[in-house]
Amino acid sequence: MKKVVIIGGGLGGLTAGALLAKDGYKVTLLEQHKIVGGCATTFKRQGGFTCEVGLHEMDGVYSPAIKKIFDKLEVYKNIEFVKPKEFFKVHSEFGEFIMPDGVENAKNALKEKFQNETQAIDNYFEIIFSLANSLEKLSHLQWYHYPLFPFFFYKLLKYKNKSVTEVLDDLTQNEELKLILNANIQYYNDSPNTLSILLHAVAQSSYYRDGGYFIKGGSYKLSEYLANVIKQNSGEVITKATVIKASKNEVTYSYHNNNIILKADSVISNISPADTYKLFDIAYKEEKQIAESISTIYIGFVKNLKSVYGKGAYSNFIVEENKTFVFVDYSQIDSGLVENTKSFGEICISDELKNWESLSGEEYKKQKEELLKNCLDTLEVYYPNIKEIIEFTEVATPKTMVRYTKTPNGTAYGYKPTPKQFFRVPKIKSDKIDNLYFVGQFVIAGGFSPAILSGYMCFQTKK
Ligand SMILES: Cc1cc2nc3c(=O)[nH]c(=O)nc-3n(C[C@H](O)[C@H](O)[C@H](O)COP(=O)(O)OP(=O)(O)OC[C@H]3O[C@@H](n4cnc5c(N)ncnc54)[C@H](O)[C@@H]3O)c2cc1C
């Protein structure tokens, strides 16, 4: 039986491991943290709270690409996906707008609000859907497409070097419309000026067409389930196991102060190429820019927010001049994170490790307190007196991300998805070591569905 060792138990590693274990490979997955999941996990706090580390909305849950994987792994039978009733709500200097779910609903709501912009709105949706379709086609490229590539893929060639700002500026001069079409930028990047229109097109069209979903009980349910599939198929999942060295057929990990060597026919890495090659002691200079990290404020409420403020939106993007963040109100869905009389919420803000890493202990604590105060003050504008019903808060910074996931700069989104960096062939197989494969956020892009897809691509490449 072929032995596969997987470095890291994020969604990419777990998906590849589960598929390979079911296919008869002997899988050993090594995870440095005490539980698997990486960014796709939860933690518990007093008062009955299960705190979601990150998941707001997973796209593509029932798309053909993900369905193929989830059917194979029987995910739908074991994991419950919950759908918020709208895509997002945006609060900005222009006022509020709710972006509904579904392409036609979204177009209609936008056209009703922007009656002089109907052509721009139609053009926008035409562009993002045709780009997403072209990228989908590109992944199934046949030999006969090559001579006619410019004909089949002229849209891709036209837009591949463009940012979201460039495309939106060509479509309309209406600043509010541009802001709304791009309000959830935080899911992908820190600025529309540097975000590839291709990534925006693939991800946004997927959310509009198929909706976004939360995992009932938190994202760890999915990670834990995938780890169980590995175990139930003669594999092993070892936590608190940090890989410290690797070579062609051996992986060394540290476990309770012992160094243990494992033989492997192949190695799958769920960590960045730079960190992987360091383990293999191979010279590698990362040329690509790494995406930003995130600061997150976890909030437990003594009351159910929906019962206090009424029906509202689940994902709320608050766009202000110096501060933009998303507040996820999990009370708006059947989240399974806490009993119904209480609720859980989360603020996420784009951030960088360099803003935190050189601070002293005292400075770090103070900066966290300031971030918390600023965000809660802003939140109170939209949810009056919300501070009075808080049971606990906890702030995680890019430093926290590094501690728990060991990703470069504490990123959760792989390489920065600029036009130059996003349009590339995903590299599953290493070109430096024969039996080394990559999965996770550095393969296609960050996000649940790209990480899961990378696991499937690895499985297909290895088969
Ligand atoms: C706050 C936040 C909000 C998010 N919101 C969303 C969202 O709404 N929708 C969405 O689709 N995506 C979201 N994401 C992004 C998404 O969670 C990630 O892109 C995705 O889960 C990354 O998966 P991965 O396979 O790259 O593994 P990672 O999560 O990067 O995990 C890698 C694993 O490798 C382990 N590891 C590292 N080094 C070693 C070593 N030497 N030995 C052993 N183990 C090691 C780490 O501990 C970790 O468990 C969010 C992320 C965060 C942090």
Number of helices: 17
Question: Helical amount among residues, as a percent range?
Answer: 25-40%
The percentage of residues in β strands lies in 15-25%
Strand arrangement in the largest pleated sheet? 8-7-16-17-18-15-19
Mean pLDDT equals 95
Structural class: alpha/beta
Can you walk through the features of this model?
The chain starts with a strand and ends with a helix. The longest helix has 22 residues, at 361-382. The chain has 463 residues and is an alpha/beta fold. The strands form five sheets. It has a seven-stranded mixed β-sheet. The protein has a five-stranded parallel β-sheet with strand order 10-2-1-14-20. The chain is built from 17 helices and 20 strands. The chain has helices at residues 11-22, 64-72, 75-78, 103-113, 118-138, 149-152, 154-159, 164-171, 175-181, 197-210, 220-232, 273-279, 305-309, 361-382, 398-405, 419-422, 448-462, and strands at 3-7, 26-30, 42-45, 49-52, 58-59, 81-82, 86-92, 95-100, 212-215, 236-238, 241-247, 250-255, 258-263, 266-269, 293-301, 315-319, 324-329, 343-351, 390-396, 436-438. Among the domains are: 3-41 and 218-285 and 419-462, FAD/NAD(P)-binding domain (3-Layer(bba) Sandwich); 104-210, no CATH class. Helix 1 (11-22) packs parallel to helix 17. The structure holds flavin-adenine dinucleotide (FAD). Flavin-adenine dinucleotide binds at residues 7-12, 30-33, 38-40, 54-58, 242-243, 270-271, 294, 296, 348, 405-407, 412-413, 440-441, 446-448, 451.
